[in-house]
Amino acid sequence: MNIVNNRYKVLNLSYRIDKDFENTIYIYSASGEKLAQKKGSSFTYYRHVMVYEGDKLSYIMHPQGFVRKSNNDYQYNYLLMDHLGSSRVLLEVVNDSLIAVQQTDYYPFGKAFEHHNLNRNKYLYSGKEFQDISLGGSMLSLYDFGARYYDPEISRWFNVDPALQLISPYGYCGNNPIQNIDPDGEFMLGFITGMFRGIFKGHFKHAKFLKEAVTSGYNELKITVGLFKAGGGQNFFGMMKEIVSRFTWQLPQTLLGFTYANAVNYLSDTKVDYYGGATTVSTPLLSNGQGVTLGSFITGGKDLEADPENALFQHEYGHYLQSQKIGINYIWKVAVPSFLSALRDRSRSKENKRHKYTSTEQDANSRAIKYFYKRNVLNWNFKQNPIGREKQWDMKNIMDKNGQFTFLFERALDAALMGHRSSEPLLEKGSDNLHQPITF
């Protein structure tokens, strides 16, 4: 359609489109969520999964389709989707049977061969709402992806890419819409590795490999988003400092952590989550209790959770705090010594393991316990993450009656941060500090 005028909001979203003395207006929330569309005196309201035409409920979305209000009854509809999430067939329940009432085929970039029964279903290519409103005698023919609109007629976005992933900020899915998907107009996802992983695992039947493909792609997106996650409890400048630090002061470990997290995601079933600016990636490739922290990326076994009361996360988050503190020195001052120490521990008997008492690990624990204490998370796992001798500590000699660290425990933390023993024994008898004291 030949649009005469298109006006944008601050969030780079179209809010008014004009042609031949007709216009449509979009209304958004402060975060960019579409709330309503106005054409003439008619309003369509969007409330999460519910859509209203004026003051009347039109339909309710659900994961497999939607429920449409029909007179005084509700009509159940189900969508059959392809591997890109595009609606191919609309099924309607009629007398306890499913009847196909809409079928849509697409060119590679999403243009439909022809449209049928748009009054029954507008969620078509990639599962996005098709803008079938008419202006100046022509259909608008855009898809609403959330962050921006897409025009399948020219295979280009209607708005600039907010993530600026490609040379062209208007190119759709890197000009490869068969391999890549873009769930919301912000980040495109590659899912080929997930698809092959599903096939190799014997999931070819029932197309389960496609589910793995989409899951892998979605986790790839979450890992990328993690680059821009900041910890709470700080002002705007503090958050910006934390994020900018990843691309400057912490750049070596950020690159390694990002690459490692994506590699793990491609090779296994992963779970990605966030806490305090850190991105956690749990994977069966690592044993329970094992973790690797590089920059803000924490990769661990299946027991890893982005939870300050999770024992593995408590310790690994301490390594992230070290990374923020010492920056480019983190690799050779913490990561490499910690890796070698853990490697040596594998040949030791259980009672002779020393890795947890080395200066890198003690420092990580002491930094983390102070960080979480300030945020009223007091359930520290001393058995798995000891501060010196684990038998020394219980809550009565960690906290005084005013809720502050006791002098003895504060001294133990300070000693751990300095990487040496205090006058009170911090290490089990016979153990040693395998590394020189860490000086930050």
How many alpha or pi helices? 9
Shape: elongated
Instruction: Give the neighbour order of strands across the main sheet.
Output: 1-2-3-4-5-6-7-8-9-10-11
Q: DSSP strand (E) fraction?
A: 15-25%
Number of strands: 23
From the N-terminal CA to the C-terminal CA, the straight-line distance is 62 Å
- Percentage of residues assigned to helices: 25-40%
| Largest beta-sheet details | 11 strands, antiparallel
Oligomer: single chain
Which value, in Å, is the CA radius of gyration? 27 Å
Give a quick rundown of the structure.
With 440 residues, this protein is of the alpha+beta class.
Keywords:
440 residues; alpha+beta; 11-stranded antiparallel beta sheet; 4-stranded antiparallel beta sheet; 9 helices; 23 strands; 27% helix; disordered C terminus
